[in-house]
User: Which sequence fits this backbone?
């Protein structure tokens, strides 16, 4: 059984404030993490999600565990915030109103999620139609392959693998607006 | 498979998250600039927001702490039930309590004495016994 953490296992709010002395690079880094978290459920709202994550910690609603990297921690908080918006909320016509969307969640929620996922996956793959290597990497990632398996796709050529991963990451970052592209909103 | 419960989109999200975390902040900044993002403006706007957010969050925490303190006080008051104050009841004039305590545990009250006499009279009243019963006893 997991033991409850005690107060001394968390940073204080003042320690968190001190760690927030960000420069340009840190802010952009955080925004990049947020953009990834927001891609499907809250595309285009990464700035709000960054602010919400920081504010929850400042207010003491979320606590930063000692020993955990700050960006890794904030990325987890942002994931949690984004997950509060149901995927079903992005269905056309009712996605503007989360309450209505929540009410609309019914036995067909799983089916709707599946449809949405299929649409997004199809779109993601289409992003790489002119880049066979990145397309292969995307397929492997979405199949849940681990690094060793993914490296095998590139004949264990680490340099080539890293180059393709970087290309893949930058392409994904350049397309945070999947929702509007899928639904034409 | 890493995790059968994760959807393809979840796997994609986690893979990219790990990818970013494995990259340095400077490298991401360079990429963002190369992609045409106005990184300076974004950083400035976030710095400005942060100042206000810290002040607002401090106020919010203070307010929450005060409310929690008040809740504790209220709960404490709810747990302490005051003893009902017993007040002396008004007795009619000339009332003499007829209790053992009032008699110091020794003397009999007039009413007790009368009752005791009546009990003795009844016990030693020969007429109270029938003749048949006398014969039987013989």
Assistant:
């Amino acid at each position: 059984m997991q033991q409850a953490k005690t107060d001394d296992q968390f940073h204080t709010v003042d320690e968190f404030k001190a760690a927030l002395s960000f420069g340009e690079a840190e802010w952009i880094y955080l925004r990049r993490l947020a953009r990834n978290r927001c891609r499907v459920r809250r595309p285009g709202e990464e700035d709000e999600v960054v602010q919400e994550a920081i504010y929850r910690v400042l207010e003491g609603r979320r606590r930063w565990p000692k020993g955990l990297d700050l960006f890794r921690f904030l990325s987890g908080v942002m994931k949690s915030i984004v997950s509060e918006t149901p995927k079903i909320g992005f269905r056309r016509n009712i996605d503007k109103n989360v309450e209505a969307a929540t009410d609309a969640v019914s036995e067909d929620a799983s089916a709707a999620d599946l449809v949405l996922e299929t649409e997004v996956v199809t779109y993601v793959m289409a992003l790489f139609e002119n880049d066979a290597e990145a397309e292969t990497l995307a397929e492997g990632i979405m199949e849940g392959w681990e690094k060793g398996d993914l490296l095998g796709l590139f004949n264990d050529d680490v340099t080539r693998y890293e180059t393709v991963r970087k290309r893949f990451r930058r392409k994904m970052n350049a397309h945070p607006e999947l929702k509007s592209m899928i639904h034409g909103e | 498979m890493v995790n059968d419960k994760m959807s393809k989109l979840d796997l994609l999200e986690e893979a990219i998250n790990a990818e970013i975390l494995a990259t340095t902040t400077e490298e991401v900044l360079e990429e963002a600039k190369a992609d045409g993002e106005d990184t300076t403006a974004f950083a400035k706007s976030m710095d400005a927001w942060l100042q206000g957010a810290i002040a607002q969050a401090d106020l919010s925490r203070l307010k929450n702490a005060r409310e929690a303190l008040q809740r504790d006080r209220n709960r404490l008051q709810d747990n302490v039930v005051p003893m009902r104050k017993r007040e002396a009841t008004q007795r009619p004039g000339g009332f003499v309590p007829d209790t053992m305590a009032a008699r110091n545990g020794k003397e009999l009250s007039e009413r007790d004495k009368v009752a005791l006499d009546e009990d003795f009279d009844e016990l030693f009243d020969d007429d109270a016994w029938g003749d048949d019963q006398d014969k039987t006893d013989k």
